[in-house]
Amino acid sequence: MLKLYHNPLSTNSRRVWIALLEKEIECELVPLKLNGDQFQPEFLAISPFHHVPVLADGDFHLIETLAILDYLEAKYPAIALLPQDAKDLAIARMVQMVTVNELTPALSPFVRKSFGGVGDPEKLEKAGQQVAAVLRFFEDLLGDRPFFGSSAITLADIVAGVSVPWLPELGVSLDNYPKLQAWSKRLNSRHSWQQTQASPELVEAFKAQMKQLMKPQQS
Ligand SMILES: N[C@@H](CCC(=O)N[C@@H](CS)C(=O)NCC(=O)O)C(=O)O
């Protein structure tokens, strides 16, 4: 059976976990606390950059979320999570890359602020503009279809769909993006999203830990 080394609060781990559930692939979950256990030699041997997720298929160990998703799609095609049409396939890949390369880095100041950190107004303003540009791009790209490049869920929805629906919690409103709002609702109601949602207790404990860590930087 496949093994997924993950952390319940890791967005990247969640993407792979959701894909496994959507594709109905059985998998053993191996949780890491990321409290230093990711630096243990046994884990570094399979994940040299000490990150989760790691997918183990027998002796084959795979890191990097997008590579893992591609592997699952190629090895388990029965429930397809990528469109066939050339343009739609490109849209699905584009959304994955824009999420990782444009949206995710711009979220850092918002995440920091939501954990009680002191937000640098200039950085927040710049990051806010970048997030808005991504949301406008995604809103237009979604068009009148329920999912990116498809009438059925794709890897693009999985990759963007653990970040965009989280934005209101970070203080970024989706009010100006009605299509993305409806799409977020659609995803949040899926079994795979609900099953992989971190418990409120876990989220609160993590926030408290982050606040503690950020204390010296605030004084
Ligand atoms: N590029 C990697 C990034 C993975 C990543 O940053 N994982 C975080 C959790 S979301 C992690 O393991 N952090 C702990 C650490 O780096 O020590 C991917 O897409 O899988």
Shape by Cα distribution: globular
What CATH architecture of the largest domain do you see? Up-down Bundle
Class by alpha and beta content: alpha+beta
Strand arrangement across the biggest beta sheet: 2-1-3-4
Biggest pleated sheet: 4 strands, mixed
Q: What is the class of the largest domain in the CATH system? A: Mainly Alpha
Order of helices and strands: EHEHEEHHHHHHH
Stretches where pLDDT is under 50 for at least 5 consecutive residues are none
Number of strands: 4
How confident overall, as mean pLDDT? Answer: 94
Strand content: 5-15%
The number of helices is: 9
Task: Report on the architecture of this protein.
With 219 residues, the chain is an alpha+beta fold. The chain folds into two domains: 2-75, Glutaredoxin (3-Layer(aba) Sandwich); 86-194, Glutathione S-transferase Yfyf (Class Pi), Chain A, domain 2, CATH 1.20.1050. The protein is 56% helix and 8% strand. The chain has a four-stranded mixed beta sheet with strand order 2-1-3-4, covered by helices on one side. A hairpin with a 2-residue loop joins strand 3 and strand 4. Helix 1 (11-22) runs parallel beside helix 3. The protein is globular, with a radius of gyration of 18 Å. Residues 10-12, 34, 38, 50-53, 64-65 line the site of glutathione.
